[in-house]
Amino acid sequence: MKNLPEWLKEWKEFNGESPEKTDSPLSLSLRNQIEKDLNPKPAFVFFHLLGIHALAGALSLIVCPQMGLGGAFGEFSLMNLFMVFGTTACFFFCGAFFVSTSLIAAFVFLEKDSLKMITRKKWLFLPGMLGFSFVVLKMLSLNLNQESSDFLSHDLPWMAGALLIGFLLIKFQENSDLMNEPLAN
Prior knowledge:
This protein has helices at 6-14, 25-38, 42-63, 78-83, 87-109, 112-120, 122-141, 148-175. It is mainly alpha-helical.
């Protein structure tokens, strides 16, 4: 540590530290914690996203039934509005609504570093979230044995709407001014 400036050596000696010792265990622990907070693990972020998705998705089921689940207001649900455009369009819009509520909630409640990871790994996070919700909704609605025609006319448009709006929202979030701010080092 001969490269330390003279004033820093004197300061360390004044504080009772040896000039050669640059990092205490406490400062290393703090540095590791900051590094961990600034660079969260993908699995940690994904499970936080799934938690938010579970809550927001469950709330969205109140106003728009998905695959036979939800629709607390009977005739006054979003399904009635979406059905004006036909069954296939209804499934497309319902999938888009279901995923968009979850992503908007994630944008509000997740930290900036987690959001950056979601935008960087959108090809992993969004299909993973969509696959999770699709399987759960199908299992809860007990419609796993549908014919392939139902899959093409109902489930495929639902997935397409969810993926399309999901990627558009993530792209919008990625390009927002909030995401472009530099992180503290």
